[in-house]
Amino acid sequence: MGRNDLIKYRKVHLLTSAAGLVSLLRWGIEAEKREKRCKKQLLVELDGTERSIYSYLRLNGKELLGTVALESNLPIFKVWSTSLKMGIKGVVRPLPGKLFEVVD
């Protein structure tokens, strides 16, 4: 396999500048994603139950769904359905093990 074939099949990369390295490592994309998430969160309106869950998770970090329900004095079915709606809005995200956390 020749040099051109290595470049063609992306076994090696041709870098001619620092910007090429940033692009190759996708560093700029992560910054853009963070910026979009911040803008998205500023525009989201939360109702009373959502605000309660959001503030609890913001204060305590990752937390079990049952603990959020217990500490917020809300029924677990209400916390579950509200957390899923908040996940769709991009405010919180579900994690394995019935954990939820605030999206930063």
Describe the structure.
The chain is mainly α and 104 residues long. It folds into 2 domains: 1-33, no CATH class; 44-102, Winged helix-like DNA-binding domain superfamily/Winged helix DNA-binding domain (Arc Repressor Mutant, subunit A, Orthogonal Bundle), CATH 1.10.10. It has helices at residues 3-8, 18-25, 27-43, 48-60, 65-72, 76-89; strands at residues 63-64, 92-95, 99-102. A hairpin with a 3-residue loop joins strand 2 (92-95) and strand 3. Helix 4 packs across helix 5 (65-72) and helix 5 (65-72) crosses helix 6. The radius of gyration is 21 Å and the shape is elongated. The termini are far apart.
Uncertain ranges:
none
**Strand/helix succession:** HHHHEHHEE
- Into which percentage range does the β-strand content fall? 5-15%
- Would you give the CATH topology of the largest domain? Arc Repressor Mutant, subunit A
The total domain count is 2
Q: Output the radius of gyration.
A: 21 Å
The helical percent reads: 55-70%
Specify the CATH architecture of the largest domain: Orthogonal Bundle
By helix and strand content, what is the structural category? Answer: mainly alpha
Looking at how many chains there are and whether they match, the oligomeric state comes to single chain
Name given to the CATH homologous superfamily of the largest domain: Winged helix-like DNA-binding domain superfamily/Winged helix DNA-binding domain
Strand order of the largest sheet: 1-3-2
- Alpha-carbon distance between the termini? 45 Å
What does the main sheet amount to?
Answer: 3 strands, antiparallel
Overall shape: elongated
